[in-house]
């Protein structure tokens, strides 16, 4: 039986919340799992990562394979390094409005 340590998605639409679970690789992503070993919430600032490293190490010693995303989260927790935040992108429409408002403010200040 191939066992994986992976993310199971929960939460509402466009509001993801993940559980880090140990599951049979043949089970669906959000389906039955063997054990929950942590939680990950990417929406909080800074991102919330809670992992029971003792359980993870025990499962890895038994042959469980963490996915790429879970192995990255485990490394972040082990090293204590903060998760790098991506710069928020604004839409072209919002950028245009901001530029227009800046021009109007500059004209008002010039008068």
UniProtKB/TrEMBL annotation:
**Could you tell me what this protein is called?**
Small ribosomal subunit protein bS16
**Gene Ontology CC entries for this record:** ribosome
Keyword list (alphabetical) reads: Ribonucleoprotein, Ribosomal protein
InterPro entries with a match to the protein in the record: Ribosomal_bS16 (IPR000307), Ribosomal_bS16_CS (IPR020592), Ribosomal_bS16_dom_sf (IPR023803)
Provide the species name: Tractidigestivibacter montrealensis
The transmembrane residues are: none
Which SUPFAM superfamilies does the entry link to? Ribosomal protein S16 (SSF54565)
Show which residues constitute the signal peptide.
none
Domain of life, per UniProt, equals: Bacteria
Tell me its family.
Belongs to the bacterial ribosomal protein bS16 family.
